[in-house]
Specification:
Strand order of the largest sheet: 3-2-4-5-9-6
Low-confidence stretches: 14-36
Shape: globular
Order of helices and strands: HEEHEHEHEEHEEEHHE
Mean pLDDT: 83
Helix content: 25-40%
Amino acid sequence: MARKKRSFGKLLALFVALVVVFLLVIALIWYLAAGRLNEPTPVPGPTPGPGQPQSQPASCPDVQVVAIPGTWESSSADDPHNPTFNPKSLIANVTRPLQQQFPASRADVYTIPYVAQFSNPVALPPDGQASYNVSRSEGAKRANDVVAGMHANCPLTNFVIVGFSQGAVIAGDLAAQIGADKGPAPANQVLGVTLIADGRRDSDAKPIGPDPDGVGAEVALKGVNLPGITMTGPRGGFGALGDRVNSICAPGDLICTAPKSAMNPLNIPGSLAALAGAYGNPVHSLYNSFAVEQDGTTATQWTERWAADLIDKAPTPAHS
């Protein structure tokens, strides 16, 4: 009997070990399939020097507006100059008026096309969307490449950067790299940046309108690294662009006003579920009517007027 019990115990231990290995393999496959966060690698940025040209090709715009839509507001195949994937895209309330005000020679208004999704990390069965890591990585690369390409071909063109929601995270990250002289264009050629509902909101940008308590969801959940979702924490400032970055955040929007207690171990599961659902909540979707000034000027109206003013006052480079 003793031998039989020992044999049974060994078999049971082997079975448990196999189950654990199987579950670890499944978890690893899930983690890898969900996608890792791949942001553009910071490199020493271009800086003006004695060799700075005095003119640029006639095809170059004086200013390029780089607009990055939020979650579910874009697709990888959308037309950057006439996006139609989501006709109700919030960022379009900024870009369309700018296109109507300025000829393309003065302002190239470029809306970054990317997958713009956020798969719910706790959805069973999976919801079939691209993960946040995959989406954010694609958006970041495309935004970086657009600015790098414009600066390489049109070295005197200045930039205005705008982002909403997931697009604000991408736009803010791009601004932080440029401000640290590790981005695709010199900081002195970025006229300004406005981030609406920034998931990495901290105290390092000028608030426009209310300045509610809380921080961006990625700051509150710093260090959380699950399949397809990596919370990267605060940026650590915008460097040389620190005086040119604006932040708009509505009270009650969990994307940009997450409670700092979200990282309490008992709160993490609920925090992740709340984050996944926050993109569709009423507060987050109403920036087109959210007033940031006493006269009723809304977030998108303010951003459009701010960008138009920067374009109006921007230098007019010589063309050859």
